[in-house]
Amino acid sequence: MGDKTSTQSGAAGRVATADRPSSVRNVVLVGHSGSGKTTLVEALALATGAINRAGRVEDGGCLSDYDEIEHRQQRSVQLSLVPVEWDGVKINLLDTPGYADFVGELRAGLRAADAALFIVSASQDALGIAGATRMVWDECAAVGMPRALVITHLEAARASFEEMTELCRETFGGDDPDAVLPLYLPLRGERGPQAGSGAAGHAPVTGLTGLLSQQVYDYASGVRTEAAPTPDQLPLIEEARNRLIEGIISESEDETLMDRYLGGEEIDVKTLIGDLEKAVARGSFHPVLAAAPAAEGSKQGLGTTELLELITGGFPTPLEREAPAVTTPEGKPCPRLTCDPEGPLAAEVVKTSSDPYVGRISLVRVFSGTLRPDETVHVSGHGLEDRGHEDHDVDERVGALSTPFGKAQRLLGQAIAGDLACVAKLSRAETGDTLSAKNQPLLMETWQMPDPLLPVAIRAHSKADEDKLSQGLGRLVAEDPTMRLEQNQDTHQVVLWCLGEAHMDVALERLRSRYGVQVDAVPYKVSLRETFGARSAGRGRHVKQSGGHGQYAICEIEVEPLPEGSGIEFVDKVVGGAVPRQFIPSVEKGVRAQAARGVAAGYPLVDVRVTLLDGKAHSVDSSDAAFQTAGALALREAAADTRIHLLEPVVEVSVLVSDEYVGAVMSDLSGRRGRVVGTEQSGGGQTLIRAEVPEIEIGRYAVDLRSLSHGTGRFSRSYARHEPMPPQVADRIREQAEA
């Protein structure tokens, strides 16, 4: 980095391959929506010669944003792999969506990667780094993942590399801001260093000055050229260069280096670069770089060579990263895996998609062993039963291996440990599943997937759609573990649980375009209940005589409320045979059937004791059906003579939010009829708020909390109990039921 001369080794149309783990780099691009991730991937593909012309996001012609939905929405909605090659190293670029609704795709990218590039827009982030980006940075820090920052959109008016670098140091540096420092400074116009603001700040960025090499890298011609700086340029980079050298030396394993530097010794640039690369690889130093797409007709975008040098020289190989823990499918611990192509096969499905011609395609990261086409592997999937994914252990034959390149798939002969590849036609494998040798089955520890907390009730648009709905939804959920399908037995609705409204839109659009199923979103119903507010009595009289065999049944009941969770209790206190013994079960059946249908607003009746006291029967006209009807009529009459309470489900909500948003979140919960039951400090400037909130009030809370907390809030929910709804709210529900 800085004094190296790298050569372009890719070729348009050539398949990037790796024959050993040390020649692989797996890099995930992270950043909020619109920060320039997809454009940067395109610029790197152009710089490596993987393509001859860069596509545009607006035209839907990019390698990683080729889906019709992405083109229509003008944003990434799925994880995409773009493999390129540079100096004999295969670089797997994992482009992730920046919108919060698709955080599941981001988590999958983090699982597949060994290092992360955080993309920060100098134009959109002028007022602060997106909160969601800070959260992902902290997640990477917690697992020691190496990170670097790339500042984009320097061509925007008032964009300042220096100001954004300082903001990155404050945001990501923590207790050690000197662990976040630039390696290059951008040049504007005629090699004039960026002034930061004012007239000079609007001049186009045409090159970079290397702080270690003290060389100028000019991109003005469309091809990177190297030159010595002019005498008036060196003093302008001196302060930044000294700070960088001190930052690198403080991370050096050579404890004498700082003393030598402070003593006036000129430290060799190669020594500094070596220490820099080691610090980046172990995740203790985070360089800041600048990048811009290539101009029309150019082959190299600003900063692409410097970024490729950092990736190949500073980011770790798969050999340096620890593999996930493994067990047998029965849960017995196994020795820690090593990244050895000759070791036992252990690969993980990080993404599942469907192709109209090929069928199901599984993107896998190979952690150990070598995956080959046409071999039989063991597929293990555990731990996602709550999302509709049954545990499974099956043997399947691997189809063709390929590597994606935009819409196309290029065939591979094998995928070695540390590499990524696509596997065709694994019919049972789902995202998060483990592929291993059939004679040595393994199960990998799954990564944390976000809970879908936005309910969307759907129904088939037509009878033809209804016939295909079940299969289409099954495939959709199999592809996306951040989506959960629920067949609600109380409301009889089909509910798709999503991460947000954009996630919902994409899911419904995929149902339509990929599986040919048109659905309509309908209002989501909460599972309400009814119960008696006081003791009441009712008489059910079902007497009909219209010639021939008639119907005759009369029963008298008493209904009294019971404690929560008691259900429906039926008691027989008939004396003297007023109701023949054979018809008492009929009365109970009629009462229970009516209770299931509800007695006031159409919701199930619960927590009451129904006592059969008396009745009348006819020797000829009484029947099972007649007494069922009489029982139902008696319950309805008893309900008409007393106050019926509507019971609503109350959920326990735990909200983790930055301290600065605690007041707004608590106020919002109170406005939802919530009761805050406690708060506690969670560390890292965050507070955990625990509350009980009626479920009917938090249907859109996944969306609203994101807005309240600027993308930094998270919450979980669990059912607590049913409790009476306030009269004014209950009356409104009844009016809606009668309308």
Describe the structure.
The chain has 739 residues and is of the alpha+beta class. It is 26% helix and 30% strand. It has 16 helices and 37 strands. Strands 18-17-23-14-15-22-19-20 form an 8-stranded antiparallel β-sheet. A 7-stranded mixed β-sheet has the order 2-3-1-4-5-12-6, sandwiched between helices. Strand 26 (484-487) and strand 27 form a beta hairpin. Helix 10 (463-479) packs across helix 11 (501-515) and helix 12 (584-597) packs across helix 13 (624-640).
List the helices and strands and how they pair.
Layout lengths: L23 E7 L6 H11 L20 H6 L6 E7 L2 E7 L7 H10 L2 E7 L9 H12 L4 E6 L8 H12 L7 E3 L1 E5 L3 E2 L11 E6 L5 E3 L6 E3 L6 H17 L6 H6 L6 H13 L4 E5 L13 H11 L11 E2 L18 E10 L3 E10 L1 E2 L4 E6 L10 E6 L3 E5 L2 E5 L2 E2 L3 E5 L9 E4 L5 E2 L9 E7 L2 H17 L4 E4 L6 E5 L2 H15 L3 E4 L6 E4 L3 E9 L6 E11 L6 E5 L11 H14 L10 E9 L7 H17 L3 E15 L3 H10 L3 E9 L2 E9 L6 H8 L5 E11 L2 H12 L1
Parallel strand pairs: 1-3, 1-4, 4-5, 5-12, 6-12, 32-33
Antiparallel strand pairs: 2-3, 7-8, 7-9, 9-10, 10-11, 13-24, 14-15, 14-23, 15-22, 16-21, 17-18, 17-23, 19-20, 19-22, 25-27, 25-28, 26-27, 29-34, 30-31, 31-33, 34-36, 34-37, 35-36
